[in-house]
Amino acid sequence: MKGQVFTIAKLHYVNGVVYHTAKVGSTDLATLALHSSETTKSGNVKHPLTRVRTLVRFAEGLSLLNRPDRDNVHITNLGKKYFDLRSKEKWSLSTEQKELLREHIFSDPARTPTIHSIAAIFSLVQQGFEGSDLTKQYAIAIEKEEAWRSKATYEGFTGFGLSYIEELGLSGDSAKNLLPLKVDSLNQRKLRKRIRLGHVMN
After folding, report:
1. Which CATH number is 11-84's, of 1.10.10, 1.20.1530, 3.30.70, 3.10.20?
2. How far apart are CA 48 and CA 55, in angstroms?
3. What is the pTM of this model?
């Protein structure tokens, strides 16, 4: 399965567009761009429309937002739950949000190309890949080995993926224990098998 990655360094960067949309139910990209001081973490981006579009696409890949067409944006049921579980600190993930996203991602690792990319890098880390081996195998697992032309691209997107699983609380030796048993024992095994047999070449 081909994965989808974005030039977004942290998961919590989607909070601005998700929270704004959750408050109104539905909106559009132009409105989110107009409120870029609230919908982007920096609050002062050079091209706000381009940035919020990327953030919305990432949030859509996480199933937090839905776009019925090119410009309009709706909050999803998962997005509502995510919003309700928010912490006082806007630009962070609460413990409950992490749990919600972990369960959603690993209950179906092939749910969307974005989710597949996150699940794939977690599986590779669990298998012991690191450094340049990890960047290579990650590109193969999400079918980006031909699209990623430079070392910087390999390292950049791999770094983003590692950042995502860290934010989800899935880094370190105890990470596996944070997943529900049924998720790890079934879907993670399927994911690892698919990567070993179909996409990852040692």
Report:
1. 1.10.10
2. 10
3. 0.87
